Structure formats: C-alpha cells, structure tokens
Amino acid sequence: MDVISHSATHDVFDTTIIGGGPVGLFAAFYAGMRGLKTKIIDSLPELGGQLIAVYPEKYIYDVAGFPKVLAKDYVRGAVEQGLSTGAVPCLEETAQSLTWLPDHGYYRLTTDKGEHYTRTVIICAGIGSFEPKRLDAPGIRTFEGRGVTYLVRSLESFRDQDVVIVGGGDSAVDWALAVAPLARSTTLVHRSKFRAHERSVQQLHQAPVTLYYPFWEVKEVRGNTWLEHVVIHQTRTGEERTLPAQTLIVAIGFAADLGPLTAWGLTIERNSIVVDPRTMSTGLPGVFAAGDVATYPGKFKLIATGVAEAITAVNHAVVFLDPAARLDAGHSTAVMDKRERAATPH
Ligand SMILES: Cc1cc2nc3c(=O)[nH]c(=O)nc-3n(C[C@H](O)[C@H](O)[C@H](O)COP(=O)(O)OP(=O)(O)OC[C@H]3O[C@@H](n4cnc5c(N)ncnc54)[C@H](O)[C@@H]3O)c2cc1C
C-alpha cells in the first residue's frame, strides 16, 4: 500500500501516536474507530517498525488469526488497517520534545521537521529509534551497501551467492537457516556459543551451513567495487581463513535508544517507559504508552500483547478527552456498522 506522508500542521489532533510499528498502527486504527482525529509519527521512511526494518522475510507464528505469516505480509495488512479509520501518517520525523501548553489545553510536540499539536499522546516507540550495531573491522565501512549489510530486505537477492553471516543470536541463526536453501554457500561466524532459540540451533547443525565458532571473528573484508572476500580468524590460535563472499550479513544486535523521549519527565526503567497496566498511562496527563516501549510487572514484549495494550491506551485516551465518554467501545462490528451508516448519504 502506498502511504502518503504528511507534514506538520497547526491543526490540533485528538491523539498523536509516536511510532508506526505493529502496535502504533493498531493504536491508530482503534483511535480512528473510536472517532479520534489521529496522527502517527515515525522516524523511519516506512511504516511497520521492527517487522519491516529488521525481519521482513521472517515468519511470525504467534499473532492471532495467522498460523504463519511473513512479517512483511503482516505489515501490509497492519498498514491498511491502521490507516483505514483516517489516521494521518508523518514519516521520516523523529519526536523530540513535548510541552504542555496550559493556555490552550493541549501539547506541542516538536520533531526534527516541525511542530505538531495534540491533546493526547500514545507512545508506541518500540525500542526507540534503533540502529544496528556496527562491526569494526578493516574494509567494513567501504563495503556497506556493496555487499556488507545490516538489514535483510529480500532473501531473493542472496540466491546463488556466497553468504557469510556474523552473530550468534536469533537473528543471525534465523538468517543462516533462511539463506542456506537458496545461497551457493552459507557460512556462520561467531565468537562465542549460540544464544539463539534451542530448536533453531538444532536445525542449524543439520542445515547446509558451515559453522566457525567459538572464538572466530571477522578480521577484514576485501573486494574491488563490490565485496569479494571475508577474512576470518580464530582469536585463540590465530588460524585464518579467507572465504569467498558477495554478501556479509552482520547480525550482532541493535543499539536501541529512546533518545529525546527520556527527557519528557517519564519514568524510564531499562530503556522502557513505566506505565500503569490498567490504563497504560505514563503519569504525564494524557500521555500513554503501549507495545515494546511500555513496561510493568509481568510484561511480555510481543505483538499480541502490544496490540491489546494499544486498546487499553486508546480507550483511556478517549475518556481523558471526554470524561463522559464510554471507556469500553464495545464490539467492533457494532461500532464500524454505526460509522458506516453515519457515512452513508440518506
Ligand atoms: C528478529 C525478531 C523476531 C521477532 N519475532 C517475533 C514474533 O515471532 N512474534 C512476536 O510477537 N514478536 C516478535 N518480535 C518482537 C516484535 O517485533 C515486537 O514486539 C514488535 O515489533 C513491537 O512493536 P512496537 O510497535 O511496540 O515497536 P516497533 O516495532 O519497535 O516500532 C516502533 C516504531 O517507533 C519508531 N520510533 C521510535 N522512536 C521514535 C521517535 N522518537 N520518533 C518517531 N518514531 C520513533 C521506530 O522507528 C519504529 O518504527 C521479534 C523481534 C525481532 C527483533
């Protein structure tokens, strides 16, 4: 779905959702369904959050209604649903400061592109604006975008290539398993024991993947205009191998940073915003949080739990805006039928 990004205006919105990942998108749908004038702001050029930026080609098995769904396909539906009730997307904008304007009774939200005005805020910023951790080895920077990659957009591009993957967590192991059936050769290099899910590690040992671990690291990458070789070494023995490679996938994790949001007066614990799980309120009036960014005792960082939190946050935003409003919207079938009847000319 083509998404037209909007820019800051002086219009006052009922709610502004920071983060257009799966949770922010669902919050946008639900807020629109509840009749709120809604805006979504995301620093990335595409909606979809981690699913589109980190693992578009991986299957998700634990969202209700889909026995198995590719992350990018889930996002396609989430974007369609998220924008179906009128939410306005503002992309490539990073939320920076939030100021309550007492004379007006709403907030001014400043981004790197301009100012937005909103009566409530729902923070669905995930792990914050995230950056893949960079590998520090000679040649890496030179070949970034020319064989060295930190994010996988399309598995097809690795067909018949020699692919080297670095890392030992879920991403690295999952990418090795996904790439192996179509690549000419797949090699996984890791400096320690694998930290990935036990079942994935078992599969890895049976897959056509050459493993170099523990104590193996990338020493250097070489090529002309495009990556041609990855030199790896065993840090204990000094043993060295030069592997042919047209692609090096670096999957050694992400550095996540809530950045400017930490200066908003919210309670932050381990890079997450502490909320009251009964309301998803953050303690700042009219400011709620949901999804990976929100924490409370017993929290699960999953899409399914995040979207449920989004419903709670939106319903409480509705009552914050109008204390006489119903907290519980009731069933979507009835709400949407009523919206459709109201929109149909008599
Ligand atoms: C490899 C991998 C596999 C996974 N598999 C599963 C799975 O099988 N099932 C499952 O349920 N979960 C899975 N997860 C977790 C799941 O992806 C997260 O729980 C989910 O993405 C959280 O959604 P969210 O909308 O809260 O945050 P995110 O998806 O992180 O989206 C947050 C958005 O906020 C934006 N943002 C952040 N800060 C700002 C700012 N200041 N201004 C503007 N925008 C901002 C970011 O750009 C991002 O787009 C997996 C995660 C990974 C990494």
UniProtKB/TrEMBL annotation:
Highest taxon listed in the record's lineage: Bacteria
Record-listed E.C. numbers: 1.18.1.2
Reaction(s) catalysed by this chain's protein: 2 reduced [2Fe-2S]-[ferredoxin] + NADP(+) + H(+) = 2 oxidized [2Fe-2S]-[ferredoxin] + NADPH
UniProt keyword Flavoprotein present: yes
Record domain FAD/NAD(P)-binding: where: 14-310
Alphabetical UniProt keywords: FAD, Flavoprotein, NADP, Oxidoreductase, Plasmid
SUPFAM superfamilies according to UniProt: FAD/NAD(P)-binding domain
Amino acids binding FAD: D42, Q50, Y55, A95, F130, D292, T333
Record InterPro entries: FAD/NAD-bd_sf (IPR036188), FAD/NAD-binding_dom (IPR023753), Fd--NADP_Rdtase_type_2 (IPR022890), Ferredoxin-NADP_redctase_2 (IPR050097)
Gene Ontology MF term list: ferredoxin-NADP+ reductase activity; flavin adenine dinucleotide binding; NADP binding
Quaternary state and interactors: Homodimer.
Class in the EC hierarchy, top level: oxidoreductase
Descriptive protein name: Ferredoxin--NADP reductase
Cofactor: FAD
Protein family (similarity comment): Belongs to the ferredoxin--NADP reductase type 2 family.
Manner of cofactor binding, per the entry note: Binds 1 FAD per subunit.
Pfam families: Pyr_redox_2 (PF07992)
